[in-house]
Amino acid sequence: MKNNYKIPWHIRQYVKRELMDYKDNKKLVEKYKSNIAAYKGDTRALLLVLARLKYIETVLDSLNKEDREAAEIIFIDQYTQSGAEIAKGLSKKAFYNAMNKVIYLVAREMDLL
Questions:
Q1: Contact (Cβ atoms closer than 8 angstroms) between residue 60 and residue 71
Q2: What pTM, to 2 d.p., does this model score?
Q3: Domain ranges within the chain, ordered by starting residue
Q4: Spatial separation of the C-alpha atoms in residues 101 and 18, rounded to whole Å
Q5: Following DSSP, what letter does each residue of 12-67 receive, concatenated?
Q6: N or C: which end of the chain has fewer CB within 10 A?
Q7: Would you state the pLDDT for residue 41?
């Protein structure tokens, strides 16, 4: 059975970028939390980052073990398809299926679909 994870290109690109920035955004939140007084004017930015992180974490937590591992290889470790195949043994089909599934589910979680 073929999964239909088709979404508009601009939404796909936006969500993919958010997923690729996940690790950096987590670090940013930790930086804010450790020195909140220094970032008084950026409360809105912090809230937006926290919301996006929550959407992504909700989706990651809902995935089965294989999809979760693939998502971490793709978006957290940021392997290319060929790199993931060589270093992690993730097939091309599994790579793209997991990537498309996670992007679709995050877009849906963000109410972009």
A1: yes
A2: 0.87
A3: 9-109
A4: 15
A5: HHHHHHHHHTHHHHHHHHHHHHHTGGGGGGGHHHHHHHHHHHHHHHHHHHHS-HHH
A6: N
A7: 62
Nearest by Cα to 3 from 110, 102, 113, 106: 102
How many residues are there in the chain?
A: 113
pLDDT lower than 70: segments of the chain: 1-2, 36-42
Say which amino acid occupies 2: K
Whether the CA torsion 53, 56, 61, 62 is positive or negative: it is positive
d(CA 26, CA 50): 9
Q: Which two tokens stand for residue 64?
A: 């089965």
**pLDDT reported for residue 1:** 45
Mean pLDDT of the chain: 89
